[in-house]
Amino acid sequence: MKAITVRPNSIGAEVRDVVVKETLGRGQALIRTVMTGICGTDRGIVSGKISFAYPPEGYSFLILGHEGLGRVEEIGDGVATLKKGDYVVPVVRRGCGQCLNCKIGRQDFCETGKFVEAGIRGKHGFMREFFVDDEKYLVKVPEEVKDVAVLTEPLSNVVKATEELLFVQRRMIWNCEDSTFECRNAFIVGTGPIGTFFAMTLRTLGFQVYLLNKREPSETERYISEKIGAEFYDTKLGIDKLPDADLIVDTSGVPEAFLPLMKKMRHNSALILFGTMEGEKAEIMSDLVTEIVEKNILIIGSVNASKKDFQGALNYLSIWRYRYGDVLNRMITSKVEVEEAPEVLSKKIKGEIKTVIKWS
């Protein structure tokens, strides 16, 4: 079987034939991979900068890829919700089997830290021709979005983080006088797929959204921001012209990108930290800590998603397919062949929002 493999903590990826010990069992399905997405985590592993990646027990290599889309080739006994030909998206994280959250399908809140994640730590990923998976970890894709369903995994993380935000902000009355969120301003730091999905999700909920980057938008970014009703803002122009913020979402992982914006935060506002990057540094003054305290500012760190968040992501994709037309297709800025993958895994393609690998 052809797969894209890495040796964690070493630089580089390669396409090669591998043998993986998987057999179709009860409650499982054999999946033919259709597409896999490339994200910053994949590139962090390939560059050797992500230290927590490791292969499954008994293997010296790790098959990369956690953003998958596949088609059911065969089902085992006991499979109730899937049939041959169905398109599915696999859930990434698998629980420890010990803590209560993992036992009830909320492994995204694992308490022991002993979970595994496909293509990242302890479990082979989906950058391969076939894989076998449990039905409970497979999410059926609606027909109308199968061409963009490879975007489900990154969007699922946004769905979860947004749900966390709205749940915790029930600490007070946060909606506007007309019961909507149309009076609330949200800054999204970073304009990759996660930033774009946060913008689309928050616009769907009614927020006024500002997509922030330290450059002018690309043609595609300009089109998407205008189509969804968000404003793209070049932070090199300074931040004084921006309004006050009720929400900041950082998808960059770079402290110096979002810390200066915090002086624009209103009372009872919130900061979502989603981006991750190792080695970046910024100084935090005690004045900022005082402001966080005195303004009741909420800080949320969020990662990963549960199966219900994947289902929620597919619901959003279905809504946006009709509301925003070709925006979702435009987010997939490049489709590459498997043999090209090692090169694009080592560096971003110019103008990239989302690059995907075609398998079948």
Number of DSSP strands? 19
Q: Level of helix content?
A: 25-40%
CATH arch. level architecture of the largest domain: Alpha-Beta Complex
CATH superfamily of the largest domain: Medium-chain alcohol dehydrogenases, catalytic domain
Which topology of the largest domain does CATH recognise?
Quinone Oxidoreductase, Chain A, domain 1
- Weakly predicted, low-confidence segments: none
Helix/strand order, N-terminal first: EEEHEEEEHEEEEHEHEHEEHEHEHHEHE
Provide the structure class: alpha/beta
Overall shape: it is globular
The level-1 CATH class of the largest domain: Alpha Beta
Q: Count the domains.
A: 2
Keywords: Carbohydrate metabolism, Metal-binding, NAD, NADP, Nucleotide-binding, Oxidoreductase, Zinc
Organism: Stygiolobus azoricus
EC number: 1.1.1.47
Family: Belongs to the zinc-containing alcohol dehydrogenase family. Glucose 1-dehydrogenase subfamily.
